[in-house]
Amino acid sequence: MFFLVRKTSCFIIGYSSNLANRIVKHNSGGMKSTCNRRPLKLIFCEFYLFEKDARNREMYFKTTAGKKALKFMLRSTLHTLGYAEKVAFIFSEQETDRM
User: Which of 4, 18, 43, 69 has its CA 20 to 30 A from that of 10?
Assistant: First the structure.
């Protein structure tokens, strides 16, 4: 399971049994879904023993709650990479929730 980010702050979440090969394919234009959205940078990955577990986690991260959780977990990384606007909404929502 992996999490890629492109320069324009679009997030790509996916599964692969060969992460290195998948990143090369994405960045070389070999994947239809991302050929016009390069370059991509790997900023997060998780490893699982069983494909079913990895696919379940991938499906979770593709939900609204999962995307929010990822952005919260990676807020420091996203801020450092210059995606502050992607992180800012998390903190503003949390402040609203506390009130």
Answer: 18
- Tell me which residue of 99, 75, 95, 94 sits closest to 85, measured CA to CA: 75
Instruction: Classify each residue of 14-28 as buried b or exposed e, where b means 16 or more C-beta atoms within 10 Å of its C-beta.
Output: bbbeeeeebbeebbe
Side-by-side strand order, sheet with 2-6:
11-14, 2-6, 40-45
pLDDT at 85: 66
Q: Tell me the C-alpha distance between 1 and 13, whole Å.
A: 7
Specify the long-range contacts of residues 19-24, CB closer than 8 Å, at least 24 apart. 19/45
Helix (H, G, I), strand (E, B) or coil at 31: coil
Name the pTM for this structure. Answer: 0.73
Half-sphere exposure of 64 (CA within 13 A, CB side): 0
Lowest mean pLDDT among 5-14, 67-76, 78-87, 88-97: 88-97
Confirm if 5 and 23 have CB atoms less than 8 A apart: no
